[in-house]
Amino acid sequence: MNGQLVRSILRGSQLSVRALSTSGPVRSSEAALDQAARDKIHPKLGNRDVVGWGFNGTASYVDREEFPLPAVRFKENTPDVMALREKEKGDWKALTLDEKKALYRASFCQTFAEMKAPTGEWKSIVAAIITALAVTGWIVIYMKKFVYSEMPHTITRQWQEDQLNRMLTQNQGRIEGISSKYDFEKGEWK
Amino acid sequence: MFRIVQRASVVVHSVAKQSLQRPAAAVVSLRGKHGVQESDEAFDARYENFFARPDIDGWEIRKAMNDLQGEDLVPEPKIIIAAMKACRRVNDYALAIRYLEAVQDKCGNRLKEVWPYIKQEIKPTLDELGILTPEDMGYDKPELALKDVYDM
């Protein structure tokens, strides 16, 4: 659809065009489109140059380490950028450091160092986890204090010791169970 | 009957061992792809000749650079030199710096071992063309901060 749109616009403006691929950005050396046509094809492009195919054929800009050169320049072609470009055609040793930096920033948004810089996101993640654990802890305390009923009386240490004594007195499990582990003559555990 | 099976298995093993040994001599570089495997020198020559084309334009340079970035290797200095000269031909300084940064990125966590060698090899060309290395531009540390889209 994009290719047909391009071809009809170009036919209308009577420009000669080599065979274009069906979609994707137009090579600036082959067909010069006026701004209105460009706005139709690439709505968010503005004045920027399309300099490559990009990673999927659209005139997009993304900073990616694995794909260092996107399809469009980052900044628009303002007059001072155009002046720098004229200077760029001459000897690069004549460019000052600021001009070189300006040229870089005109074509690209972030440097590799900025792309790969750590974000500190891990701190907010750890903070969120600790907060969640804290809230859970408070809920546990609330449940124990207000929701759960009392523990059964048979769970105290004294009761359990008496229970064990009773089992031994009654000789429960005398063959393979608890009483078989108790030496009745000596009065201690085996 | 078992003797025959045993004999046959011994024969099969020895034939298999022979056939495994032979390819090691024939193939120069293993790329793990289908079809004919290109040697390292052919690969380097292909990219160097591509960048050395006198009528190359920015579109093609970017295509080649992005492809090189996708390969599992750090480009040879001669390829980098050819790319720098190609950038000079199309009058694009930012492209040259970006590609040097990309080469540094390909070195991965062995940057300190590999980059000094590359820098030593390409420094004459860089000085001749007037290209600074990313460290000289101050781009080895982050310079500007970008607001996160989720904070806007």
TrEMBL record, chain A:
Q: Where is the signal peptide?
A: none
Give GO terms for biological process: mitochondrial electron transport, cytochrome c to oxygen
Instruction: Name it.
Output: Cytochrome c oxidase subunit 4
Taken from the record, one Pfam family name reads: COX4
What molecular functions are annotated in GO for this chain? oxidoreductase activity
Transmembrane regions: 125-143
Membrane topology note: Single-pass membrane protein
Compartment(s) = Mitochondrion inner membrane
Question: GO CC annotations?
Answer: mitochondrial inner membrane; respiratory chain complex IV
InterPro entries with a match to the protein in the record? Cyt_c_oxidase_su4, Cyt_c_oxidase_su4_fam, Cyt_c_oxidase_su4_sf
TrEMBL record, chain B:
Main location (coarse class): mitochondrion
User: What are the record keywords, sorted?
Assistant: Heme, Iron, Membrane, Metal-binding, Mitochondrion, Mitochondrion inner membrane, Phosphoprotein, Transit peptide, Ubl conjugation
The UniProt entry, under SUPFAM superfamilies, shows: Cytochrome c oxidase subunit E
> Has UniProt tagged this entry with the keyword Mitochondrion?
yes
Give the pathway listed in the UniProt entry for this protein.
Answer: Energy metabolism; oxidative phosphorylation
Q: Name one GO cellular component term.
A: respiratory chain complex IV
The record ties this protein, via Pfam families, to: COX5A (PF02284)
| GO aspect biological process, one term | mitochondrial electron transport, cytochrome c to oxygen
Q: Which InterPro entries match?
A: Cyt_c_oxidase_su5A/6, Cyt_c_oxidase_su5A/6_sf
From the Swiss-Prot or TrEMBL record, state where the protein is found. Mitochondrion inner membrane
Keyword Magnesium tagged:
no
Query: What is the protein's membrane topology class?
Result: Peripheral membrane protein
One GO MF term on file is:
metal ion binding
Subunit organization: Component of the cytochrome c oxidase (complex IV, CIV), a multisubunit enzyme composed of a catalytic core of 3 subunits and several supernumerary subunits. The complex exists as a monomer or a dimer and forms supercomplexes (SCs) in the inner mitochondrial membrane with ubiquinol-cytochrome c oxidoreductase (cytochrome b-c1 complex, complex III, CIII).
Functionally, this protein is described as follows: Component of the cytochrome c oxidase, the last enzyme in the mitochondrial electron transport chain which drives oxidative phosphorylation. The respiratory chain contains 3 multisubunit complexes succinate dehydrogenase (complex II, CII), ubiquinol-cytochrome c oxidoreductase (cytochrome b-c1 complex, complex III, CIII) and cytochrome c oxidase (complex IV, CIV), that cooperate to transfer electrons derived from NADH and succinate to molecular oxygen, creating an electrochemical gradient over the inner membrane that drives transmembrane transport and the ATP synthase.
Homology family: Belongs to the cytochrome c oxidase subunit 5A family.
Protein name, please? Answer: Cytochrome c oxidase subunit 5A, mitochondrial
Species assigned in the record:
Littorina saxatilis
